[in-house]
Write a structure and sequence with these properties.
The chain has 97 residues and is an all-alpha fold. It contains 5 helices and no strands. It has one domain.
């Protein structure tokens, strides 16, 4: 029986359009259950899909600090989140429960 070659799943590969990115972020916000690091990781996936260097430039951050902030291993400041969301061409909105 031949060996099966697998690769690590990378959601960034499937985030091709702004609509894909917005839908992905919306879904992640719904299932995050208050986990800010999870949301940061989702933003990191979107940033990688869009191009981390350009997102960092547009957000006014260094690429290295952006990778760290959106790694999912730490919780970035809300200021950083807002800068990244703007740099991604997305916006947050609120609605009543």
């Amino acid at each position: 029986m031949p060996k099966i070659k697998t690769t690590r799943y990378d959601s960034a590969v499937y985030l091709e359009t702004p609509e894909d990115m917005a839908a992905y972020l919306e879904a992640c916000l719904e299932i995050a259950d208050g986990d800010a690091a999870f949301v940061a990781k989702a933003l990191g996936n979107i940033a990688r899909a869009k191009g981390m260097t350009q997102v960092a430039k547009d957000a006014g951050l260094s690429r290295e600090s952006l990778y760290k902030a959106l790694s999912g291993e730490r919780v970035p400041t809300f200021d950083t989140i807002l800068k990244v969301i703007s740099a991604l061409g997305l916006k947050l909105h609120a609605e009543p429960l």
